[in-house]
Amino acid sequence: MARRSTDLSRPRRRLEWSGTYDPEAFGRLAEAIARFLGTGRFLVGQTVLVVFWITLNTFAVALRWDPYPFILLNLAFSTQAAYAAPLILLAQNRQDDRDRRQAEIDRDVNERTQADTEYLARELASVRIALADVVTTGDLRDAVDRVTDALETLSTRLDAMEDPTPPAPPPPASEAP
């Protein structure tokens, strides 16, 4: 039973076909068909159908609906090819569009990565420049060793100055005859 509107103040609307066309849905359908046409299952199925068609039309005299030149079979192949080629091209165009978008995304990611790398290289260079004036442990060790050597030398001199016994005079040089 049809459902009626209770609002009688407005005229009834006619049912109309909106005629909207969704290119994405059609594109997905075309890709699905193109993928199926490129499978081994389709080729095996088509081969079995052709062999069955030819065998039946050649040997079953009572069931011949397409005699020897197999015009109906050729017409079916022509129709299939007429629809398959544009569907395959549509699927390829959609794949090209996806590849192009992915290439743009990859290019953007590469640009950001390059900018980040350049930034990090500049930061690393500034850290190296800043560390050029910083004393390292090797520098400290060398300085401490020099101070230690100087203190030992000074200590030896001080010890020599505090010793009350003068050093023994050198032996006289022997005179030659």
TrEMBL record:
Protein's UniProt keywords contain Zinc: no
What keywords were assigned to this record? Membrane, Transmembrane, Transmembrane helix
Region described as Disordered: 154-177
Q: In which residue ranges is the amino acid composition biased (Pro residues)?
A: 164-177
Membrane spanning residue stretches: 42-65, 71-91
Q: Which InterPro entries match?
A: DUF1003 (IPR010406)
Q: What PANTHER family does the record point to?
A: INTEGRAL MEMBRANE PROTEIN-RELATED, MEMBRANE PROTEIN
Q: What is this protein called?
A: DUF1003 domain-containing protein
